[in-house]
Every structure is written in structure tokens, then in C-alpha cells.
Design brief:
By secondary structure, the chain is α/β, with parallel strands linked by helices. The longest helix has 14 residues. Helix 3 links the parallel strand 5 and strand 6. About 45% of the residues are buried. It is built from 10 helices and 8 strands. It has a single domain, classed as 3-Layer(aba) Sandwich (Rossmann fold), CATH 3.40.50. It is about 40% helix and about 15% strand. An 8-stranded mixed sheet has the order 1-2-4-3-5-6-7-8, sandwiched between helices.
Length: about 260
């Protein structure tokens, strides 16, 4: 599992595939997740393209420290240097949840550096809370101390259609996240919203969600942009590694990228 220094921080990443049948692909995971959440997609797409995925700061096996000044700009700088240092040409960027917010922000900043966007269970920023990181900083430290009970509570909340295996996988990935990094990352995305900028993007977009996903309400936003959209019946927020959904999901993504 190689490590690369991007924006001054150690980033753990994985690289798969040798063929160039399709453009290279970069998978960006969501909040309290990591590279392992993409393995169903990596296994499939590495047969068609060079595939990359990395743990975002504070997550998985990438750098974790209370000294990290988490922000969407830092996340974007990491992705930019990751692409530049590994010389990845015009990748398709696939982002889930927080990773999807980052993918759109990167596309706004560097529209010429990618070929397509696939957005899974996400939106054009979450809200407009000015200086959220500063306002929520004391709360971040409190939530970090309550990390375990909060996650136990989240797991116990009734779910519509998640299997016990999927809930267990989410729980395991959450606990691979640094408590401080987890909530500091969350605070950093609560202060961003860029609907108007996303409306100006000319890169092809595929937006995918599930009927039980918290971002389903963004479906109409992307439809109005002319993006290709798909909604999976009864699917929840992390359905991309659910065995009932990922074969069809992978096929939908493949068709979009192949065009």
C-alpha cells in the first residue's frame, strides 16, 4: 500500500489495472469511509482502466493529526497534487458523499484536468454556514471525545434496507477514521455550497442516488443541469458495496464512461 506526500501530508493510496481501454479513474470515498468502500468498483473497473483510490486525510491509513487544518481547499490541493505527481491524464473522477462534494469543487477549480464526473449520493455542497470550522471548533473536540458512543448510536438507528453485513462494514470503516479528523472534515464541508458554480460546469456528469439516500432531494438539481441521472429503488447511502446493487451500479457507470 504505497504512500505519497500531497499538500505536505502523507496519503495512503492504491493503484490497480494496466489497460487503457477506458480513461483512468479516481475514486474518492465519503465521510467516515476509506478505500475499502470502493473495492467492488475497483475489482470491476481495473479490468478496463487504470484505477486509483486513496484514503482522505484523517481517514483509513492516511495521515491523522489534530494539527491538520481540515478544509475543502486542503482536500482539493491533495487531489490536485495526487493527479500531478502520479501523472494521471484526464481521469474520470468518482465521488461518494463527501468525496462527491470534493469532486465537484475540483472540477470547478480545474475543469481541464478531468474528463467526466460520477457523483454518488452527494450534492453541490451541503449548506451555507459561514466559518463553520471556526464556529464548530469547540464542538468538534467534544464530538471527538464522544466518537464511539455517537457511532454506536448511528448504527442502532433503524435503517430502511441495509443488511447486517453492510451495517457492520460501515461501522468498521467509521472506526478506521480519526475521531478529530472525522468531525473536523464534516465541519469543513458544512461551510461550502457552490450550486451556481456547478451549473456552469461543462464536464459530463452522472448523478446516482437511492430512494432512501439522504441526498435524493438533489436529483432534480442535476436533472435540470442536463446530467445523466439514475436512482436505485430502496437503496441507502452506502449501497455501492451492497451485493444487491453494485453489479447493476457498476454497469451503469461503465456505460456512462464508455460513451
Amino acid at each position: 500500500m504505497p504512500v505519497i506526500i500531497c499538500a505536505g501530508h502523507h496519503i495512503r493510496y492504491e493503484e490497480f489495472g494496466q489497460t487503457n481501454e477506458l480513461p483512468p479513474m479516481i475514486f474518492l470515498h465519503g465521510w467516515q469511509n476509506n478505500v475499502t468502500g470502493w473495492y467492488r468498483q475497483i475489482q470491476f473497473f481495473s479490468k478496463h482502466a487504470k484505477v486509483y483510490a486513496y484514503d482522505q486525510l484523517g481517514h483509513g491509513k492516511s495521515e491523522k493529526s489534530r494539527k491538520i487544518q481540515y478544509s475543502i481547499d486542503l482536500m482539493e490541493a491533495v487531489l490536485y497534487q495526487f493527479i500531478k505527481k502520479l501523472e494521471i491524464s484526464k481521469p474520470v473522477i468518482i465521488g461518494h458523499s463527501m468525496g462527491g462534494i470534493l469532486a465537484q469543487y475540483f472540477a470547478i477549480k480545474h475543469p481541464d484536468l478531468l474528463s467526466k464526473l460520477i457523483l454518488l449520493c452527494t450534492g453541490p455542497g451541503t449548506s451555507t454556514i459561514p466559518n463553520a470550522r471556526i464556529l464548530l471548533r469547540p464542538l468538534v473536540y467534544i464530538l471527538a471525545r464522544l466518537f464511539k458512543p455517537i457511532n454506536y448510536l448511528m448504527i442502532k438507528i433503524p435503517h430502511h434496507n441495509m443488511t447486517k453485513e453492510q451495517i457492520r462494514d460501515d461501522f468498521r470503516r467509521a472506526f478506521a477514521t480519526d475521531p478529530h479528523g472525522s468531525f473536523a472534515s464534516l465541519a469543513s464541508i458544512l461551510e461550502v455550497s457552490f450550486e451556481e458554480e456547478v451549473k456552469k460546469l461543462r464536464v459530463p456528469i452522472l448523478f446516482i442516488t437511492g430512494t432512501h439516500d439522504l441526498f435524493t432531494e438533489n436529483l432534480s438539481f442535476y436533472q435540470k443541469l442536463g446530467a445523466q441521472t439514475r436512482i436505485f429503488k430502496d437503496a441507502e447511502h452506502t449501497f455501492h458495496y451492497d451485493s444487491r446493487y453494485f453489479p447493476k451500479l457498476n454497469q451503469v457507470m461503465l456505460e456512462f464512461i464508455s460513451r
